[in-house]
Amino acid sequence: MGTPIARRLLAGGNRVRVWNRSPERSEPLAAVGATVAASPSAAVDGAEVVVVMLADAGAVETVLFGPDGAATALRPGTVVVQMSTIGPDEVRAVAGRLPAGVYLLDAPVGGSVNAARAGTLVIFAGGTADAVERAAPVLGQLGTVRHCGPIGAGAAVKLVANTGLVTAVAALHDALAVAAALGVDRQTALDVLDRGALGGAVGRATASGASFAVTMAAKDARLALRRPVPAPVLEAALDLMRAAPDQDADLSSLVSPDFCEGTLMRLTLDNPESVAAPFGDRFAHVARIDVGGGALLMLAGQVAVDDDGEVVAPGDAGAQAERIFEIVGGVLAAHGASFDDVLHVRTFMTDLADLPAYAAVRRRLFTGTPPPASTTVEVSRLFLPGAVLEVEVTAVVRSR
């Protein structure tokens, strides 16, 4: 989104200086008149309005406050227009760290690439009326500004909007899946649904030029679910997005014929070549169940053994946890997954007094919000002498 926004501002006769974490992406902008800066601080030096459009809160943190970060070069009176979709809490944290006299406008957008090019974005603004007024000459070239309230309000409204979007697209997926199962022609189903409650979702799913990657939509869903609110439909939509075969494809891929109509279930027992086979190949590391557009990984109970099958660090729960999750991570990676894809962890341990050491390793590796579901069981002994932990993992992954 940053590129079409910059192009729109250049077309409006503005002097635009750009910086991108991927330098090659700035080259097309340089060709149409933008000045390419060497760092975030150089990009904002002397600017009256600074537009930040990044993937997530971590990127915003690095670009604003990391080495050579933009915050060091902001001058009093500058308006920072934060357009990245991040959580309200993260927006308020950014506001609290900016230099004195610098305004922050929380301004995520509704609309995709085509709307940015045409200047028809809807901008959900959170901040003071003064900040909105100062940024208005720039934002007016990008679309319509809706002042939603104080800092954080723009981010909150954007999460509400995206919750509606992803749940509607997920509902359209289900409706088309039912249509396929009942033998209803897909175009007939789309025509009927377009005239009902899912008309907006049909329009979004069949539009050209939209660019909202599944992985980014799933990120926004996780942000919305951080609040302790019952949202079973959004949770189901998030599961559907996790199962999407191409995480970088547009959200409309969730209603593609292949993903909606699915395939027959396929079961694979696997020992990835990149991970040492357990105990001389006497059992499989993982059972993989492929169905529809996704897959379920069920990892066998893992204990802390080296490549020769010997127990690592007998009696040491922390060290054994490190080794177990090294193995688990390798198996997940071999199937195109990561710890972020884990749904459930079941742990057997010989002494619950070891739980803090084990939990410390878990917290470092499982950083998503919310964390995976978890079951912990104390047992009198495990099948290998010296082993104090055994871990089973279930994960959702995209199809190969």
Automatic annotation (TrEMBL):
Q: Where is the 6-phosphogluconate dehydrogenase NADP-binding domain?
A: 1-144
All copies of the 3-hydroxyisobutyrate dehydrogenase-like NAD-binding domain together span 152-253
- What Pfam families does UniProt report for this protein, alphabetically? NAD_binding_11, NAD_binding_2, Ribonuc_L-PSP
Q: Which CDD domains match?
A: YjgF_YER057c_UK114_family
Q: InterPro entries from the xrefs?
A: 6-PGluconate_DH-like_C_sf (IPR008927), 6PGD_dom2 (IPR013328), 6PGDH_NADP-bd (IPR006115), HIBADH-like_NADP-bd (IPR029154), HIBADH-related_NP60_sf (IPR051265), NAD(P)-bd_dom_sf (IPR036291), RutC-like_sf (IPR035959), YjgF/YER057c/UK114 (IPR006175)
Q: What is this protein called?
A: 3-hydroxyisobutyrate dehydrogenase
Tell me the organism: Micromonospora chalcea
